[in-house]
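Input sequence (424 aa), recorded before submission:
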Amino acid sequence: MIKKIKNYYDIYGFKQTIYKIIRYLKFMYQSNSKKTGAYKLNRYEKNTITLKNKQMFIFANNSYNNKNNYSKLSNYYNLLGYSVYYIYIKKNDENERKKPLVYYKSLYKLKPKECKFDDDTLVIFENKNLKFKEYFEKAKINKSIIVVNPFKTNLNQNKKDAIWVKRELNNKKCDAEFYNNISIIILNHNNLGIINKCIDTLIENKKKYEYEIIVVDNQSNDGSYENLKQKYKNRIKLIRNIKNGCSSGRNLGVNNSSKDYIVFLDSDQWVINNSWLDNYINIFLNKKNVGAIGWTAGWFNRNGYAYHTVDDFEYRYMPPQGLYRSDIGYLGSGGMMISKKFFNKIGGFDEKYDPTCYEDTDLSLNIRNHGKELIYCPYLGIKHLPHQTTKSGSDKHRNLIQEKGKYFVKKWKEKNKKLLKYIK
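Predicted structure, token format:
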């Protein structure tokens, strides 16, 4: 911890280091304290956060009073773009005759007036709660009612219902042009131990999408290039960069792509479900003026340097009922989606940032400088093992952050300093 503080002090100075420590301690205190209710949106956030239009209400018996089970199931459906609410049915409740949404205990407290039932709502009942199912049927809210065990997420136990549920979950309002029109671009530099998992899961989870997988090798010398060439043969496009560079490598990948939309992944990320791209596709289809969508995001300090990231904030800076937000300074490249046409229009990544550091921050400001919005959405179906591709904390990496950070700040203060205004 002391080494991290020293490294931070060397880069950002005394004042920013003290501020960072105070912010960290405050965050840790809030994380360890008891929280009640939902993430509360302030006035500004209400205008910048788009809430999920897909809701799922799970009516469970008292046997499901287990927060670990709730959390696991919530993560599963959140990645599919659903805002999940668990309604814990108490036996012999005096208020049992009231409307079922008036009395319940939920992991996230939700007011009844916030419940909107439409074609994108799923109401799931555990088998014994049929009387509540009858209530919804009488209210003519029966398009999305199913009876299953919600904790069996593979939904194979009830065959009839499982078929219906899978059809509903997979029947996204996505234009067909996206499904077969995406290039996945991954960089590899001496990542023999982790990149196979990334590629294997991409291949396993492409039932809905016919994307192409492009791997750009940045002069690896650990045998990973030879391994990829032999193991995957015709299943991926394998290209070798003449140098080790994140910017030049990604630009090379885009130049060799044959699709209209690009998704950048890091080699230490992997895919976890068959609908992993649906939320991003839906945002591209339904929101105008999108420049890029990212899985991680951050802001700047008062001097213009990259500072806080979403990982510094509760819920990764996204309330459970939120789908995406635009009040961010920049996006990270690992998990970023952008159209190839727009990427080429703005000139791609600035290769002066090679080998690494600040290239995605620079691209983000370039997107905003061309009048497009950056969208942060954490609901991309991927997982991440941090700091496997960059040796974070090493002297070499720290020096790169300083060098590229100075170039970044100087460049954008001269070009358009207003874009550095997003401060957290």
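Checked by second reader. The mean pLDDT is 77.
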